[in-house]
Specification:
- The complex is a heterodimer of chains A (about 220) and B (about 180).
- In chain A, the strands form two sheets. In chain A, strands 1, 3, 4, 6, 7 and 8 form a six-stranded mixed sheet that branches. A two-stranded antiparallel ribbon of chain A has the order 2-5.
- Chain A has about 220 residues and is of the alpha+beta class.
- The N and C termini of chain A lie far apart (about 50 Å).
- Chain B has about 180 residues and is mainly alpha-helical.
- The radius of gyration of chain B is 21 Å and the shape is globular.
- Classes of the chains: A alpha+beta (about 220), B mainly alpha (about 180).
Chain lengths: ~220, ~180
Amino acid sequence: MTTWRDDDAALQDAYQAAVARSSGDCAPDDVEKVWLAVTGDLDAGQRRDLIDRMATDPALAQAWRVAVELDRARGGPSLAGRQPTRWLPAALIGLAAMVVVAVGLRVLVVNRTPADTFRAGGVTTVESLIVSDAPLPREAFVLRWKPGPEGSRYAVRVTTEDLRVLTTVNELAATEYTVSRDALAGVPAGARVLWQVVVSAPGGETISSQTFVVRVQ
Amino acid sequence: MPSSIQSIDYAKLRQDFVKAVARLCPGWLANQRDDLVQAAVMRVMQIVSRHENRASDAGLAASYLYKVAHSALVDEIRRANRRQETALDDSTVERVAITFQDPERSAASREIGRSIQDCLASMHRDRRQAVALYLQGHSVPEAARLLDWPAKRTENLVYRGLADLRECLMAKGIEP
């Protein structure tokens, strides 16, 4: 049986960090081809050729990511399919990459379980019910998310942008969690706070959400 | 102007840009997100306006619009990245708000990214394609659809490709 490793996530992070920072050019024709490939309007052979080039061309890879996210945003029936359950802002990706340099790929900023996004194949996603980047008042800093399968338990981790852990909680039955005012005491107004939910379904499946972002009002 | 172009819902397009940029936009571009979206929408408007007579029916127009929108967004993100690089090179620019713009960190990240790309370049083609999609964050079913391969084959290729990648990185002194 295929076994996926935690350090696979670090490889993804490092690759995506390189892609996110790309300011290189790629030919307009290639940009168009990327869109056509992602939306399924390029034949399979050409699509594979493009993917092959994308592997080593950060500018093309960036165009690919933009196409995937734009197509998802418009609700397009793309070949790329569902929204991934795992995502990190590039800020975290950059930090992850630094950690990788410092201590090797063994140490990660993301907790992954055997049933991570890749293995789950998008079976379940964890969605925030808070608009991304929304300001939340300190006195009612309530994080909410869509419920997992009935009987699920939830773990929540809340950090600052520089990954200082503000609070963690496990074994929640509710699909919301209020971060205490005390936990937010050192966070200045307007600062971004990152949060992530891990759903433990009754069947034993564990699914991590992407990293969500809110602001402290 | 064809009716399909006249009826372009730019508010929806803007919303889609906002969603996409929120997911794509690195933290160090956060302050520029609104500007970036606005610039991309304006660019789309300009391009559509220039090419308005080329779209002959609603289907074509919708497809055309998002193709243009993709291109515009790619350009604007690239532009923003370049501006950011310039700002980092300019010691007079205030860096306080750029939380993660540590040049050493960026350099380290770039170095690892380059190493991964070098390793991918030397990998067997099929494995490289499967791994590239995985590294982009695609699941096995997605990668299988994109490559038009069976899921099991795709999974095996990703798995073996990742093993190759780790081995290659180790040879470069990056120990997985």
